[in-house]
Amino acid sequence: MKMQPTLPPLPAAGPGAKPSGMLRPILLGLAGLLAAGIAAQAAQSGVTVDAPWVRFVMKGRPAAGYFTLRNDSDQDRTLVSATSPACASVMLHRTVHQNGLEKMVMVTDIAVPPRGSLAFSPGGYHLMCMKPSTQVRPGKSIAITLHFKDGGTADAQFAVRGATGH
C-alpha cells in the first residue's frame, strides 16, 4: 500500500483573510511597483491641468470643457484627444471667426510650447462632451483624460457648472 504525502491545509480565504507570510512581501513589492509606475507616468506626462470645469447647458445637449493646460517640460506637448466615461465621445474644438460669424471647428491636435500654457476657454479652444451621461450636471464632477501625441496622458476631475459658468 502506497502512502501519499500529506499537504498542509490551505489558509482561509475570504473577507478579512490576511496574506500568508510568504505572500505578503510579494504583494507589497507589487504594490510598490504599481505606485512607482503611476508616479512615473504623472512625471513623464509633464503637463498640468489647471482649473478644469464643464459647462452644462441642458439635458441632451453637448457640454463644453474649459481649463488651462500648462506644459512643464522642455519639449512641445501636443494634445491629440480626450476621453471620459461620462461622455459618449470628447472632441477637441476651437471657436473661429469667419465672415463676421462665430463657429466651432473640430481640430485634430493642439500644441503647447515648452514651459508654456494654453487656455481652453469660451470663444477659443475647448473640449466638447458629446452625448453627456446623467453624471454631467451642476454640482457634480467628471473625470476626463487628455491624450498626447507621445503617448502620455493627464487625468483631471472637471467640476460641472451651469450655463452661466457658476
Describe this structure in words.
The structure is a single chain. The chain has 166 residues and is mostly beta strands. 14% of the residues lie in helices and 45% in strands. Strands 1, 2, 3, 4, 5, 6, 7, 8, 9 and 10 form a ten-stranded mixed beta sheet that branches. The N and C termini lie far apart (83 Å).
Annotation keywords:
166 residues; mainly beta; ten-stranded mixed sheet; 1 helix; 10 strands; globular; disordered N terminus
The assigned structural class equals mainly beta
Number of strands: 10
Helix content: 10-25%
Helix-strand pattern: HEEEEEEEEEE
Alpha carbon gap, first and last residue: 83 Å
Largest sheet: 10 strands, mixed
Radius of gyration (Å): 23 Å
Strand content: over 45%
* Basic shape: globular
Number of DSSP helical runs = 1
Average pLDDT, all residues: 82
Poorly predicted regions = 1-15, 22-44
Topology of this structure?
Elements: H1 23-45, E1 47-55, E2 63-71, E3 77-83, E4 87-98, E5 101-106, E6 110-112, E7 117-120, E8 125-132, E9 141-148, E10 153-161
